[in-house]
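Troubleshooting log. The previous structure file for this entry was overwritten by mistake, so regenerating from the original sequence record. Sequence copied from the archived sheet and checked twice against the printout by T.R.
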Amino acid sequence: MGRIPRLTKRYLRARARLGVHAGTAESRDVAREAGRLEKADVLPLPGDVYTLLPHEKETDASTAVQVLAHVHRVPRRNLWLWYWWTNDELTLVALTNVPPT
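Regenerated output below.
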């Protein structure tokens, strides 16, 4: 039994902005990796990192709250899934086309 997936508004906005639409190869690859995260016995997966999520472009960085999240690369794509998890839930926080720094 896997974790219940949750999608944040930020994740949904980023997915649309990056052109990751239903039925595309990118969408299938993102869904496959999200499924791996949902079903993983242990998180983070090897290679995932824990770092600060970049601010959205329209955000005033001087007043924005910094957010920590784990980051997982979508293989064969320049796409990065930012996530939080508990034993019961996986929250997809953001999707970027910029690797974590």
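The longest helix spans residues 25-39. Archived copy saved in two places this time.
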